[in-house]
Design brief:
five-stranded antiparallel beta sheet, 38% helix, alpha+beta
Length: 135
């Protein structure tokens, strides 16, 4: 079961804490606007789920705080690789502004295994990992 939260929601921390407490699992950064996911052209097709990044967390609240700070336009933190990649190319932020970024959380007792599985499945379908993941 997954939950979807807007990254720029001022209540993001309490929403995650209330739903997941200190649990972890896998999170995805999703491009979402007007009630629909934004399709992303990939090497071998179109990702209609709008997945920009897949990551793992032993604690959602800790990792998502780091992620939100690294992506936020008014913060200069570099604590999360996804945020560094997002900000390193202005065209990325132009195509996928902060306001359309959502985070999807899926609890797992084995986040490393689930992350690896999801990245492998994505790469098999599209010939590459999501745009903000490392190769």
């Amino acid at each position: 079961m997954s939950d979807l939260f807007q990254i720029n929601d001022k209540d993001l921390w309490s929403l995650i804490h209330n739903k997941h407490n200190d649990k972890g699992g896998v999170y995805k950064i999703i491009a979402f606007q007007g009630g629909q996911r934004i399709s992303i052209n990939r090497f071998l097709g179109t990702d209609k789920d709008g997945i920009l990044y897949i990551g793992k967390a032993t604690s959602f609240i800790d990792r998502v705080i780091e992620l939100k700070k690294s992506i936020a336009p008014d913060y200069n933190g570099k604590g999360h690789i996804c945020g560094r990649r997002y900000k390193s190319n202005p065209k990325i932020a132009e195509s996928f502004p902060y306001e359309v970024l959502f985070i999807e959380l899926t609890e797992s007792n084995k986040p490393e295994e689930l992350e690896k599985q999801l990245l492998n499945e994505y790469a098999k379908i599209f010939g590459e990992v999501p745009p903000l993941n490392a190769i």
